[in-house]
Amino acid sequence: SDGSIRLHQMTSEYPLMQWNDSTNGQPIIALQWALTRPAVFFVLDASSNIYIWDLLENDLQPVAKQTIPSENVVTMALLGEPEKTNGLLGIALAKGCGQIDIHYVKKKWALP
Fold it and tell me: What cellular component terms from Gene Ontology apply here (predicted)?
């Protein structure tokens, strides 16, 4: 609820990494690992901002942030085929009005 993210290993109750206030205090609505690139994950906050984290590039803060204007995004899901190396990765965004948008992610965050 405060924008903190914790990375855990399944064998320990203590986080390996913790990022406090990663969304400037906005609650996190959804977080999902990239299906095609293991070190990348996406975070959606309550203000319809999407943060892209690439732990191989920067493990202190997101490498990109994108605001989705005009509509309240209520959830997201990633689309892709991990067994294919074509670098296609999409984000499905469900908006409060019932509309669903699909956006493709830049190849640098999608290629294995």
Answer: cilium; cytoplasmic dynein complex
Residue 90: Cβ within 10 Å count: 15
Q: 4 and 20 in contact (C-beta within 8 Å)?
A: yes
Q: CA geometry: angle at 43 spanning 57 and 100, to 5°? A: 125
Tokens (6 digits) for 2:
């405060």
pLDDT band (50, 70, 90) for residue 29:
very high
pLDDT in tens, 35-63: 888 899 999 999 999 999 999 999 999 99
Instruction: List Cα–Cα distances, 69 to 13, 39, 49, 62, 73, in angstroms.
Output: 38, 27, 9, 19, 9
In 3D, which of 51, 48, 37 has the Cα closest to residue 80?
A: 37
Binning the chain into helix, strand and coil, the percentages to the nearest 5 are 5, 45, 50
